[in-house]
Amino acid sequence: MTGSSPLAWNDYEAVLFDLDGVLTPTAEVHMAAWAEMFSTFLGGLDTSRPEFADADTSAYTDEDYYAHVDGKPRYEGVADLLAARGVELPQGSPSDPPEAETVCGLGNRKNDAFTAVLERDGVRPFPGSLALLDHLRDLGLPLAVVSSSANARAVLRAAGIADRFVTVVDGRTAAALEIPGKPEPDTFLHAARDCGAAPAAAVVLEDAVSGVRAGAAGGFGLVVGVDRGAGEQTLLTAGAHRVVTDLADLV
């Protein structure tokens, strides 16, 4: 089912939102953070060092982001971009400080850049998503955020909507509880329990194929795909019951 028409929200007991791409255009913040980190790193690379003699230090561009970084885990994105630029660094460890000249060090430097960009530039919810949040608040439905990001709470605070949710189940939560992330349904199931709702009585809203698959696998009462570029048919095939391009379509 596709198109614009309000849902019978009172038929459900909880609503579970993905964050990036559903509530906030956080990809813009990630893009800016990657650009700041890689531009500084490449611009400061000492090509007189033998190991960097053949490195491509030309300006980092949005094309680099889409070709090597977009949609990948942070350290994998770093490794892919460095390989494309002919830069070899040791992998290092996730505990490496941001100053470390390792793949993980650069990945952690990017995370620091994300925090700095978020604090400097902020992020605003999609207008249609805010309209739906307002509508659901008026109905008194418990809401949750289920995100793979470790920065979910910071993004919600920056967007001014952190107080809208009963619970936030993010990458840190999943690691602490030792439960798998999307496309497995466990993080959504945990959020539903926090909201006091059975899966069959909860709605999942997701823009990513992996998140839609998680909602379908968890037996949720309604899985709404939010098409921010994945494609309507792709989201339906992944298990969405309905696809919209704007959450205002559901009010």
Low-confidence runs (pLDDT<50, min 5 residues)? none
Proportion of residues in helical segments: 40-55%
Distance between the termini: 16 Å
Over the alpha carbons, how many angstroms does the gyration radius reach? 20 Å
% residues in beta strands = 5-15%
Tell me the structural class.
alpha/beta
Q: Identify the overall geometry.
A: elongated
Counted by DSSP, the helix tally is 10
Q: SSE order in H/E notation?
A: EHHHHHEHEHHEHEHE
Description:
The protein has about 250 residues and is an alpha/beta fold. The protein contains 10 helices and 6 strands; from the N terminus they run E-H-H-H-H-H-E-H-E-H-H-E-H-E-H-E. The protein has helices at about 25-45, 60-70, 75-85, 105-120, 125-140, 150-160, 170-175, 185-195, 210-215, 230-240, and strands spanning about 15, 145, 165-170, 200-205, 220-225, 240-245. It has a 6-stranded parallel sheet. The radius of gyration is 20 Å and the shape is elongated. The model has no long low-confidence stretch (mean pLDDT about 95).
